[in-house]
Amino acid sequence: MYQILVADAIKPEGLGPLLESPKVHLIEKTVVEAKHQLHEIDAILVRSATTVTEELISSMPNLKIIARAGVGIDNIDVPAATKRGIVVVNAPDGNTISTAEHTFAMMAALMRHIPQARASLKNGEWKRSSFIGTELYGKNLGIVGMGRIGSEIAKRAKVFGMDVLVYDPFLTSDRAKKMGVTSLELAKLLTLADIITVHTPLTPETRNLINKKNLLTCKKGVYLLNCARGGIINEEDLYELIIKGHIAGAAIDVFAEEPPLGHQLLELDSVIATPHLGASTKEAQLNVATQVAQEVLSFLNGNPVTSSINLPAISKEVFAKVQPFYELIKQMGSIVSQSMPEGIHEITVNYAGEVLDFDTSILTKSLLSGFFKSRLDVPVNEVNAFLIAKERGLTIGEKTSHDTFGYSNFITVTAKGDNRQLGISGTYVDHYGSRIVRLNDFTIDFHPEGNLLYVQHMDRPGVIGRVGKILGDHGENIATMQVGRKQAGGEAIMLLSFDNPLSDDILRKLKQLDDITFLYRITLHGS
Ligand SMILES: NC(=O)c1ccc[n+]([C@@H]2O[C@H](COP(=O)([O-])OP(=O)(O)OC[C@H]3O[C@@H](n4cnc5c(N)ncnc54)[C@H](O)[C@@H]3O)[C@@H](O)[C@H]2O)c1
Ligand SMILES: O=C(O)CC[C@@H](O)C(=O)O
């Protein structure tokens, strides 16, 4: 009998597959209420109220799967789960429409002062002139993050006669054209938008993405919405610029700390807010509950899952053999994604040597999983990799060859973006592990893991030393360093690894050095 803890309010109607199974005992309690039963729990289902920490995971020795009835997995310690071999699944599209509709409802309510007018009327007032609103029609809507929700909002905005401007570094120009939206850099979008709405995951890159510095470049009287994750828009900066009259108002569904008890933004008349209701519809909750219930039951019955975000959905025997190449190519995908922060419309993979003993499509899907990991909240795995790539206008090609360049196996990935292309080659060597042996036509040899810095520069005396000096001046210890060049005095490469990720300040200073062509901070999580 599987013990399944439903720790948050998840729609019972959606849990039918679990309730009907004779193998399942459902426990509908919070983790606090169930503290004496945690040791026997096989699966836990949560929404956003429960934080699944490493400590909580450790208190459940039998735990096999964590199911998130929603999209965002920032309340789950995924690395801790992976370390324990615990599958983490979510419901990536169950609440897309609901959240897009909620965002639009908040936008209309914000522009027409509906909550404030209702409160005034309830107080026995009739102050019609106090609530003169603004039409959505003809306004510039800036969407930051053009994934599932951002795309649905763009569709609705166009019907309302709005001009849709989008910023998403991973959006291809083809897809933007097909969506009929104008793709801009964030800095440009902020200067043109009348209304700005954010729909990205909360990641180290998106935390405080919208802040005082760039908000000051917005039109005076701009409106902001956050129905994604608290923290993407810096809350203190938003408060200050509303008080100063630069920002006309804001609609907020999510907060950096929830519940936002006594939050200063809630004191402002020009701020409307809801308690994280984007997904709170009958339909969305039925969708996500049904999806996670089916995932959990499928997994516990030994069948592949469709929305795993951390473990492959293939048999353990096959995975044990293919795992070295599976991890290598996943890291290659992540390196490509982080070395080409732009829309990429084509990826071609060439397999040679002993990798051809396996179903290489599993490897290509692992490549996509690594590629999308730093770009999407949606889990990309063997089941949905090609679908998501197609949705995002990414063409995938697979080739094979006999040329292994002296290695027993050799994988080459070539990515073509709007502005340039990048090639990377790797191999797996017994006892040495994964090795990247070519990067952007440079011969090199490094292990793809941890905190890396990829630098391309001109081959001139002192460049390496100047990079080393900045790092040393900031107390950054270089763990490993690889250098290479194509010819004397031409283009050259540095690949460094560190114990910790480099700060934005260090990156900024390195970029200002003479003879640096470009550089990227690359963070690769272990398998
Ligand atoms: N308020 C709610 O109840 C509610 C409901 C559902 C989802 N959400 C939140 O909304 C977010 C978006 O959901 P989704 O289903 O559209 O996810 P998604 O993964 O489909 O889309 C996210 C988009 O953000 C883009 N992105 C990633 N990093 C970026 C960056 N630095 N700058 C600009 N764009 C970036 C990605 O390219 C992608 O297109 C989720 O992460 C979740 O946290 C909130
Ligand atoms: O469960 C909820 O209501 C919120 C879920 C939402 O934030 C999500 O990320 O899917």
From TrEMBL:
Residues 452-524 form the ACT domain. It catalyses: (2R)-3-phosphoglycerate + NAD(+) = 3-phosphooxypyruvate + NADH + H(+); (R)-2-hydroxyglutarate + NAD(+) = 2-oxoglutarate + NADH + H(+). Pathway: Amino-acid biosynthesis; L-serine biosynthesis; L-serine from 3-phospho-D-glycerate: step 1/3. Its EC number is 1.1.1.95. InterPro entries: ACT-like_dom_sf, ACT_dom, ASB_dom_sf, D-2-hydroxyacid_DH, D-isomer_2_OHA_DH_cat_dom, D-isomer_DH_CS, D-isomer_DH_CS1, D-isomer_DH_NAD-bd. One of its GO terms (molecular function) is phosphoglycerate dehydrogenase activity. Belongs to the D-isomer specific 2-hydroxyacid dehydrogenase family. Catalyzes the reversible oxidation of 3-phospho-D-glycerate to 3-phosphonooxypyruvate, the first step of the phosphorylated L-serine biosynthesis pathway. Also catalyzes the reversible oxidation of 2-hydroxyglutarate to 2-oxoglutarate. This is D-3-phosphoglycerate dehydrogenase. It comes from Peribacillus huizhouensis. The lineage of its organism: Bacteria, Bacillati, Bacillota, Bacilli, Bacillales.
